[in-house]
Amino acid sequence: MVKILGVFDLLAAALLVGAAYQVTLPYGLVIALAVYLFLKALMFLMDIGSLFDIMVGILLILSLSMSFPPLVFFIFAGLIGLKGFLSLFA
């Protein structure tokens, strides 16, 4: 179960990297991953990783209509990607 969550975290990181390069992201996938991140954050509310999940979910939704500096996307992609990578091998 934890490995599946890690794969979705890595997918969210890939979407953030795509947003940094201003790639047109599929709305359905972005919304689905943002909802997934919010629900996962509610499940593990006492964990610091939940704060990252909420911030990345908000950033994903905002990336559909706003542009941010690429560094913001890369920082959050690194955080959620590292979290996903560690959950795959922990």
Description:
There is one protein chain. The chain is an all-alpha fold and 90 residues long. It has one domain (2-89). It is 80% helix and 0% strand. It is globular. The mean pLDDT is 92.
What structural category do the secondary elements indicate?
mainly alpha
Largest sheet features: none
Q: Radius of gyration, rounded? A: 12 Å
Mean pLDDT: 92
What is the number of helical segments per DSSP (H or I, 4+ residues)? 4
Order of helices and strands: HHHH
Query: Could you name the ranges where pLDDT drops below 50 across 5 or more consecutive residues?
Result: none
Bulk shape: globular
Give the number of domains.
1
Oligomer: single chain
What is the tally of beta strands? 0
* Percentage of β-strand residues: under 5%
The N- and C-terminal alpha carbons lie at a distance of 12 Å
How helical, in percent, are the residues?
A: over 70%
How would you summarize what this structure contains?
The chain is mostly helical and 90 residues long. Helix content is 80%, strand content 0%.
